[in-house]
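S1.2 Input.
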Amino acid sequence: MSKRVVLNFGRGSFETGFPSVTAELWETNGVRSQQLIGSLPSAPEIITCYR
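S1.3 Output.
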């Protein structure tokens, strides 16, 4: 059985952080089993990993 995670970072950037992040956990049958809300701090070094 597979599951899906959908991340919504909302507004923000790697330089300033993301004040409102939502993670939705979905079951295979399309039912959302859980929703988590939080924030992420700034992490400007991540950008260099994708260049």
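S1.4 Remarks. The CA atoms of residues 2 and 28 lie 6 Å apart.
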